[in-house]
Amino acid sequence: xxxxxxxxxxxxxxxxxxxxxxxxxxxxxxxxxxxxxxxxxxxxxxxxxxxxxxxxxxxxxxxxxxxxxxxxxxxxxxxxxxxxxxxxxxxxxxxxxxxxxxxxxxxxxxxxxxxxxxxxxxxxxxxxxxxxxxxxxxxxxxxxxxxxxxxxxxxxxxxxxxxxxxxxxxxxxxxxxxxxxxxxxxxxxxxxxxxxxxxxxxxxxxxxxxxxxxxxxxxxxxxxxxxxxxxxxxxxxxxxxxxxxxxxxxxxxxxxxxxxxxxxxxxxxxxxxxxxxxxxxxxxxxxxxxxxxxxxxxxxxxxxxxxxxxxxxxxxxxxxxxxxxxxxxxxxxxxxxxxxxxxxxxxxxxxxxxxxxxxxxxxxxxxxxxxxxxxxxxxxxxxxxxxxxxxxxxxxxxxxxxxxxxxxxxxxxx
Length: 414
Description:
Elements: H1 3-13, H2 23-62, E1 65-69, E2 81-82, E3 97-111, E4 116-124, H3 131-135, E5 137-140, E6 153-157, H4 158-164, E7 171-177, E8 181-192, H5 197-200, E9 203-207, H6 208-214, E10 221-222, E11 224-229, H7 235-246, E12 257-261, H8 262-265, H9 267-305, H10 307-315, H11 320-356, H12 363-366, H13 377-394, H14 407-413
Parallel strand pairs: 4-9, 6-8
Antiparallel strand pairs: 1-11, 1-12, 2-10, 3-4, 3-7, 3-11, 5-8, 7-8
Helix pairs in contact: 1-11, 2-9, 2-11, 2-13, 9-11, 9-13, 10-14, 11-13
């Protein structure tokens, strides 16, 4: 049996040792480490969840990758491209590509009896993937697009429905300004809410046939293609792969197609998310430093409290290395206890936030009205193992003090 492990276990869990004057201070150290780990777990869960939710919502509105006309027009009044491309619809047979669909956009003005509001109509075809909007529907249903007959049904956001006092089944007029105002009548089929206010207040989903007719395009002309991929982490590679297939395609007028991903389309949002990630690394670093200092303080107290034992062990010939290991084992026992309670506190708070959404956010500043939580077992394991390993390595420094303890003086002092 490992003698060092046995002694460390005995002095840690023995009832008499629990009555030591150092015990309250050790408990404070354990509480500090537990609190630090809980903060790290909560911080990582919120940031990963926040990034995941924001990214998911933006992709829901604009897909992972878009194939559009290569021009300098950055508005929603787009230059058309032909639907008849060699990669459509066969692009989804490529490994990593989940789905490809057509779309078209056009800005307009909604007019009701009492209100007026600008909005962007996103035209979708019969190949549109409704899964994102169906998840976020709060009233009504999504509409069906037929390639032969246009439907006047549309999907609007809760933001617009409250602003314009529209309910499912209500009719409204929308004006599109070209050389002259061109009205179109729509019926509210469903109401969605993503909490991404910047997008909710802009987009209305309608039959792509309306956009084609309003723009006087040919029946096979569209604004572009949206490509959904299986894994967001592969977005850069998949953008390169799609660009190799579609980016070399030329239209009849000699223009080529442009392939852009969601990060390139909304760089300000993704740069902001990267900045949030940096803040988390700073928090993790500070919490690790606090945990390390807590354990260093605890170890020093343990050594001072056990100087008599150290003197006796040295007097009977125990090597300094073995005595150091005893205290490192004892520190590991205390660390495991601290990590256990840190996980209970951190995961408990995350569970409460995940199901009850206690912590609210300013939707206009954070694009979402609550702090989302993402439970990731890998992140939790890494935080626990990382905290334990880094702290135990740092604890090698204060354990050196054991080498300087004189057995004769400690026994005589006792």
